[in-house]
């Protein structure tokens, strides 16, 4: 691995920042302490700082003459999870925890911002510290607040840690990296009856079971086997007592897909089949299908830039291109709908002991911090110095093995 000496020297400070952020988690649109900390450090480095973008987001701008512009994004929010790590810097807020590594993401981009402020590349770098990635679509809110109109960028890049990939390795490919995330709520209305006399009613629970089967047939028999889709029912609410068939059933869950065409198909077929099945049994179905996050789709040229940046640090054989897309979701996808860019996974090490994302036993791996800082520096340099073919020069910054 190749890390600049100046970045390697930052590690104690990076670890201190990361542990402090971990101990003080803040969830969606409540990241006031985190935002104030970022603004203070970024201003101290001489950067142009803007607060309150997308409610609690922070944007810092580094300008160094004419040239291209690039956006680098990190998410800053935590999750509603009670931590079980027992670490000395564990969450001090009951029921909230950095269980997805956003404390590490924030630290890496902050470190890169400070390094680039002292070693500015030619052009403009926009450092985007985004709130509310978990469930609330903070990226969309920042865009609605004029993010790219106020801070124009030619390209935009994101990064997420990935447990199960060794520290020192990266993973990326062009096309879909993460799935679209949609939610649904289906209300089935039948006719209540005595449980001993079901023929006198219309059983919505029976209808719910038939709709579940019909929906799973969409995935297994309607979606092209070369594509991917997941329909998961996660809640079923019906009835209040033992001997009464209820009037209604409420079903909730999520639908995930990797392409816009499959996403359209899922919504269309789920609506159509719910209606047909309900009508067959004399019931009524009302589906509320909500599109939450689009698929995270990397553009080809920017994927090449990101991969080359990672290979400068980790070597070619440790930048994986064979990992399949995740059916999890990521709201960086909203930014990729507006600008070309790429999203990369950085290894977080072993998952032993339940150290998976969104686990109460998870912790970001501090050994990845300097790698992430160096990656941001490299990808910004390459995005700003590429020629019209998308090929750019060797790394500008002095590296030590």
TrEMBL record:
GO molecular function, one term: metal ion binding
Domain Peptidase M20 dimerisation as annotated: residue spans: 183-273
Biological classification of the source: Bacteria, Pseudomonadati, Pseudomonadota, Alphaproteobacteria, Hyphomicrobiales
Pfam families linked to this entry: M20_dimer, Peptidase_M20
Family matches, as NCBIfam families: amidohydrolases
Keywords carried by this UniProt record: Hydrolase, Manganese, Metal-binding
Official protein name in the record: Amidohydrolase
SUPFAM superfamilies linked to this entry: Bacterial exopeptidase dimerisation domain, Zn-dependent exopeptidases
Binding site for Mn(2+): 100, 102, 134, 160, 358
Coiled-coil features, chain-numbered ranges: none
Protein's organism: Roseibium aggregatum
Cofactors (names): Mn(2+)
UniProt xrefs under InterPro entries: Amidohydrolase, Bact_exopeptidase_dim_dom, Peptidase_M20, Peptidase_M20_dimer
Cofactor comment: The Mn(2+) ion enhances activity.
Gene Ontology biological process: diaminopimelate biosynthetic process
Gene3D superfamilies found in the cross-reference section: 3.30.70.360, Zn peptidases
């Amino acid at each position: 691995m190749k890390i600049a000496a100046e970045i390697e020297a930052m590690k104690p400070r990076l670890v201190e920042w990361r542990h402090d952020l971990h101990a003080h988690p803040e969830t969606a649109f409540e990241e006031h302490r985190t935002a104030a900390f970022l603004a203070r450090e970024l201003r101290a480095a001489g950067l142009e700082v803007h607060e309150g973008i997308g409610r609690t987001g922070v944007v810092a701008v580094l300008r160094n003459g004419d040239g291209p512009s690039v956006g680098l994004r990190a998410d800053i929010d935590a999750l509603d999870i009670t931590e079980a790590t027992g670490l000395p810097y564990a969450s001090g807020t009951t029921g909230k925890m950095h269980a997805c590594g956003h404390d590490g993401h924030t630290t890496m981009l902050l470190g890169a911002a400070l390094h680039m402020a002292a070693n500015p590349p030619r052009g403009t770098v926009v450092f985007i510290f985004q709130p509310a990635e978990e469930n609330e679509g903070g990226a969309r809110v920042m865009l609605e607040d004029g993010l790219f109109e106020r801070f124009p960028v030619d390209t935009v890049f994101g990064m997420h840690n990935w447990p199960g990939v060794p520290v020192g390795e990266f993973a990326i490919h062009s096309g879909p990296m993460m799935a679209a995330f949609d939610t649904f709520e289906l209300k089935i209305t039948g006719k209540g009856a005595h449980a001993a006399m079901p023929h006198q009613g219309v059983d919505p629970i029976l209808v719910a079971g038939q709709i579940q089967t019909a929906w799973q047939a969409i995935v297994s028999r309607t979606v092209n086997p070369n594509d991917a889709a997941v329909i998961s029912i996660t809640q079923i609410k019906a009835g209040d007592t033992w001997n009464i068939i209820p009037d209604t059933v409420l079903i909730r869950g999520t639908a995930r897909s990797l392409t816009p065409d499959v996403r359209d198909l899922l919504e269309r077929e789920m609506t159509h089949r719910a209606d047909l099945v309900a009508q067959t049994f004399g019931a009524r179905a009302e589906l509320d299908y909500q599109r939450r996050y689009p698929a995270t789709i990397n553009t080809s040229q920017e994927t090449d830039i990101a991969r080359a940046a990672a290979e400068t640090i980790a070597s070619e054989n440790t930048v994986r291109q064979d990992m399949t897309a995740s059916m999890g979701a990521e709201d960086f996808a909203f930014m990729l709908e507006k600008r070309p860019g790429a999203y990369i996974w950085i290894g977080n090490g072993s998952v032993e002991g339940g150290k998976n994302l969104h686990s109460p036993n998870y912790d970001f791996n501090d050994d990845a911090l300097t790698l992430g800082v160096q990656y941001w520096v490299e990808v910004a340099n390459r995005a700003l110095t590429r020629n019209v073919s998308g090929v750019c020069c060797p790394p500008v910054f002095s590296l030590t093995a």
